Every structure is written in structure tokens, then in C-alpha cells.
Amino acid sequence: MALGKHLLLELMDCNNELLNDIEYLRKTLSEVATQIGATVIKDSFYQFTPQGVSGVVIIAESHLSIHTWPEFNYAAVDVFTCGEVIKPVDAVKPLTEKLRAKNTKYVELDRGILTENKVEVS
Amino acid sequence: MALGKHLLLELMDCNNELLNDIEYLRKTLSEVATQIGATVIKDSFYQFTPQGVSGVVIIAESHLSIHTWPEFNYAAVDVFTCGEVIKPVDAVKPLTEKLRAKNTKYVELDRGILTENKVEVS
After folding, report:
1. What is the ipTM of this complex?
2. Is A97 strand, coil or helix?
């Protein structure tokens, strides 16, 4: 049994204006968190100059994060959840659509594998 | 050229009291961020009941995050940095020591591979 699932999502060829819109990204990440069944606790976002946004939404089940490079139409998103109910991969489609990404790639990793009451790594 | 480096660190057999001490974890993550050469912008931490802490430090170069399971003496830490100067792997030793982890494992992944002005994924 893994304690957590960690999705690393690469969003490419996105709309670069959206990637620089901190309030849009804050709203989007929270909405997607709720959509996949997570409970949003709080968020923390930061607008870089001249461009780019970093943000994190802490959820009861761990976190979602985003870092954007509007100059490359690229965003790196993480969806880290614990428990058996939420599937981080459910976030791929809505995030792809909301950032208008034309290309996406992702990988999902297990975090904290439990064996005989000890934690081991996959 | 990768835009970012992402270290996924598994800290096992840690001191479980430290894993439940939100102020210690906040201080530790910020200190380690500074130690590896990152610039701390802000942090956001949350204490769970009955135990466990989630926290993120946003740095100018991306983020550090931690999720702790004191009941399993386990913490999942991420160190995501962009730029060529900072080496996320430099965070492994200080984090291991500060959380008194007896076992650690980690993997480092590239995020956002640039090729011919386009972003591709490794």
C-alpha cells in the first residue's frame, strides 16, 4: 500500500496569457482540486516579474502545485494525494483544457510504500 | 536543457515528534532552502488532527514541499528548482539530519525539456 500518489504533469503549448494570470491559475487549481474530490485547505500564489506564476494549493490529501513559464507556453503541475479515493490522473483533462495545452505528458509515482508496518520506497 | 529539476525525497524512520512539529518543519524547510542557495518568498503550512503536517515553501526558483506521517515516521519531501545554479540533491543531507531519518531514498527528474524553442518532456 502506498501512502500517496504523485502525478507529475507537463503542460505544453498552453495559452501564454493564462499562464501569467495569477487569479485565473489560483481559481483553476482550486476548482480542479475540488473536481477530483479533494478538500481545499488554503493556497499560496506568487506572481513573478516580468512573467511567470508559482502556486500551491494545500488540500486535506496533500497538495497541488503549478509553476508557469509563459515565455515557453509551459507549465509544470504536480498533484500529490493520499488515500485511496482520489485519483490524481483525473486532474489531467480539466487542467489541459483550462490552460489550453495542446500537448501534455505525465507520470504517476507512488510515495511511501508501506510494508510490514514500515515505510519503503517503490 | 531542462527548465527545472525535481527531487522526490522519501525520509523514513524519522523522529516522529519532529514530524508533528509545524514550527520546526516550517523553520527547517526555509533554512534548507536558503542553505542550497534558494531565495525564500513565502510559506504555507498546515497542522492536521490528530497528527501530520503539510507545508510548502515557495522559492524564487520554484518550491519545497513536505507531507508528514508521524504514525509511520515518514515524510515525503519535494525540492523543485529552476536554473542551473541550485542542486536540489544538496537538500538531502540537511533534511535527513534535521528530521533524524535513518533511511532515505530519492530520485531526481527533469521538468520541461527545451528543444528547438519548444518544451518537451524527458
Report:
1. 0.92
2. helix
